[in-house]
Amino acid sequence: MATTESGGRAETGFTVSRPARADARRNFDALLDAAREVFAAEGAGASLEGIARRAGVNIATLYRNFPTRQHLFEAVYLDEVEALARMAADLDSLEPWDALESWLRQFVSYATTKKALYDAIAHRAEMFVTGREMIHAAGRPLLERAQSAGRARADVSFDDVLFLVNGVSGANFVQEAQQDRVLAMALDGIKARK
Amino acid sequence: MATTESGGRAETGFTVSRPARADARRNFDALLDAAREVFAAEGAGASLEGIARRAGVNIATLYRNFPTRQHLFEAVYLDEVEALARMAADLDSLEPWDALESWLRQFVSYATTKKALYDAIAHRAEMFVTGREMIHAAGRPLLERAQSAGRARADVSFDDVLFLVNGVSGANFVQEAQQDRVLAMALDGIKARK
DNA sequence: CGAGAAACGAAGGGGGTCCTGCGCTAAAGT
DNA sequence: ACTTTAGCGCAGGACCCCCTTCGTTTCTCG
Q: Locate the HTH tetR-type domain: which residues (chains A, B) (predicted)?
């Protein structure tokens, strides 16, 4: 239940550090878990009071740990974004297009379960600068490699691709199959035409 | 200022009819105009009180004319959707793919200035059943024609295409040029591969 | 085990939204 | 011109949210 108890979370200079006292640490983790769920369901604008309630903690405790909505948001999503970034590294062995495609697929499957991630990208939230940079750092090389190999169209930027693929995550599909079909179209649009 | 004074609005059996008394009619139109602007800017969840304020009318008057948010929403967007539907008819003369493409382009340019339209489609709002049907009735034939001509890929439904293209409208692009590039990718994804 | 400090929750101020009841105003119709 | 009545705004109840203050609880460490 508690967030994969890592010794301490990444140093971004922004994220708050995990508190030392036992009760405080318990609440901190409960808040992080609750926030993850609520942000995922309702998007980046979700009610902080709702998050505190779900964590079984007073709103004041939330504010004590995360002075602003941004702090909480980044604390929650940095893990996910890091995972996305790390994954990009494991893709070097694949053929250029396959690497790009599979990373983008992962990206969508992340973003659809996490409406907040979609929001952050779609609305260019400043709250998300750190995460945005990490995603760029991870994904752009993949696109550029595919472009150099002539597999991805050369006239688009990584941002363009990200927007297109992120758009696919915005709708709430009824069947999984539909999302696959739509994503397939998007990917075809990114591919270089023969 | 008043909404293109049509004799009476379309009969959907849902939209409220324009009131008979002069003052009432004035307020009705002001509300519709305000709603159009506010929905466009803030999306389908915009504050009704804000709309009433902008119309220079009391919130009670809004409720008197439009008992629910849905009533107001449909009253506002039916016109737009009708325009989109009408346009599809004028496209018969074009080559199958060109007809589809230009309709989809129009669709995007509508949806981007009207966040509420995007919302309605992305979230499958039940509030939007009528409009949704009209859009389908207008656009599906265009897709099917392009598919029959072998110009659009055959393995997708109209819904799929709509979601993909609508996704492009979701992000708020900083430059117009970027939106063009992203839309171009989406359209390429819809085209049949040679 | 017993301070002292750290963290907690209750509560409340300020603001916003949705929606309704009610007495008054001003348009319609004779 | 005068009555009728449709339509109006005011004001307020019932929520919900953001954020802060403050007295109390509970952990930690000597």
A: 25-84
Q: How far is B128 from chain A (nearest CA, A)?
A: 15
Distance, in Å, from the CA atom of B132 to the CA atom of B70, rounded to the nearest integer, reads 14
List beta partners, residue B47.
none
**CA dist., res. B165 & res. A168, Å (int):** 9
Residues 6+ apart with CB under 8 A from A132: A120, A121
Length of chain B: 194
Structural tokens at position A4: 């994969």
3-state secondary structure A3-42: CCCCCCCCCCCCCCCCCCCHHHHHHHHHHHHHHHHHHHHH
Point out the nucleotide closest to A46 (alpha carbon to C1′): D17
3-class secondary structure per residue, B123-163 = CCCHHHHHHHHHHHHHHHHHHHHHHHCCCECCCCCHHHHHH
Query: What's the CA gap between A193 and B154, in Å, rounded?
Result: 18
Q: Return the amino acid letter for B70.
A: Q
CB B19 within 8 A of CB B28: yes
Sign of torsion over alpha carbons B98, B103, B107, B109: positive
A128 closest CA partner among A117, A139, A137, A136: A117
Axis-axis angle for helices B22-42, B115-122 (nearest 10)? 70
| Residue B26 CA, nucleotide D3 C1', distance (Å) | 24
Q: Of B123, B172, B182, which to mutate for an interface test with A (greatest number of A Cβ within 10 Å)?
A: B182
Provide, for chain A, the percentages of residues in helix, strand and coil under a 3-state DSSP scheme, each rounded to the nearest 5: 70, 0, 30
Burial of A46 (0-12, 13-18, 19+ CB in 10 A): buried
Residue B142: per-residue pLDDT: 97
Do A167 and B172 lie within an 8 Å CB cutoff? Answer: no
